[in-house]
Design brief:
- The chain is mostly helical.
- The chain has two domains: 18-190, no CATH class; 194-397, I/LWEQ domain (Up-down Bundle).
- The chain contains 15 helices and no strands.
- Helix 1 (23-45) packs antiparallel against helix 2 (49-75), helix 1 (23-45) packs parallel to helix 3 (81-99) and helix 7 (194-220) runs antiparallel to helix 8 (226-260).
- The longest helix has 35 residues, at 226-260.
- It starts with 22 loop residues before the first helix and ends with a helix.
- Mean pLDDT is 87; it is low at 1-12.
Length: 397
Amino acid sequence: MTVAPTRAPRLTTTLRQTERVTPLELFFDLVFVLALTQCTALMAAEPTWTGLGKGLLVLGVLWWSWVGYAWLTSAVDPEEGAIRLVMFAAMAALLVVSLCVPGAFGDDALLFACAYAIVRGAHIALFFLASRGNSAFRQSVVGLSMSTAVGVTLLFAASGMDGWVQGALWALALLLDMGGPYLFGSGGWSLEHPGHFAERHGLIIIIALGESIVAIGVGAGAEVDAGVVAAATLGIVVAAAIWWLYFDVVALLSERDLVRLPAGRERNELARDDYSYLHFPMVAGIVLGALGLKKTIGDVGGELDVVAATAMLGGTALYVLAHVAHRLRNVGTVSYDRLLCAGVALGLIPVAVELPALLSLLILALLLWILIGVEALRYTGSRGRAQQALAEAESRH
């Protein structure tokens, strides 16, 4: 009796079958929580314009790695055994990347680049497996692998430099890496579950808001007096307003617009622009605001310096301006209410450096909630119509 030779097992992928965010995806996102905290810590340790620039560059690199896995897990099932193991390996590498953030421009620059290369390499390898048998998908993955290779190579080069040259290499790496999907096209990507993709980005907004809560605790220290209590309360008021501005209408309209489009280039390009690109300034604005909140909690009676004031008010303005750009991209109109709010926040920066930090935080809270009140009166039916459209789309699916 002869036994037929067995074929060695191959690493394969299973296409995603559900809109539901899986526990493994939530588990993966937990590592990104540490990454955001480390970015805030990097900027807080070097509260200068250079420090802010470094923090935003690191945040951009980390954001783009997270975005890659959001697209990946929208195409393949992350709970499949082989994929699960690779995701765990990527999480370990991303954890090392996060630990290296404080020294990403110093002693840990090379280790940061090495760990980041593993994170991106695992992502590209899984995409190649997922694109097997789909020539258009494979072509898009090849383009992505090229921009990824260029970005990672520039980070390795930056690890051997310092000063403005190092910063310029980081900026170029981020620009070329993020520009890959725009330059090489988006027609071949697989985004069969747009609801899942939208939910992933909504969850990452919540994770970023969690950094604001962490900033309150870190900034308060051991002594909790009346000033700290007032600042912490106002911090929650501001965080709640940030949440409201996104989840009350924007998130619903974004998902509705994405779900309405058929699978293909148009849907992919909207997902790329609305979520991969425009959600980055939203997250960056929240992280900058958390830095300003941390500085406020640390000294509620003192004035914010110009860098901290710019982080708190300018970060909030950046977040709101991303919403303005989002609406312009989707429907071709400008939200003048939010544009005005962002302009006022920016105009308050020179005023904030002359006021107690607690009063500046109070003014910011009032500004955001006035905007919410105006929009609630002006767009009463938008939320209900968006919810109805999503429910109809879900029932059809």
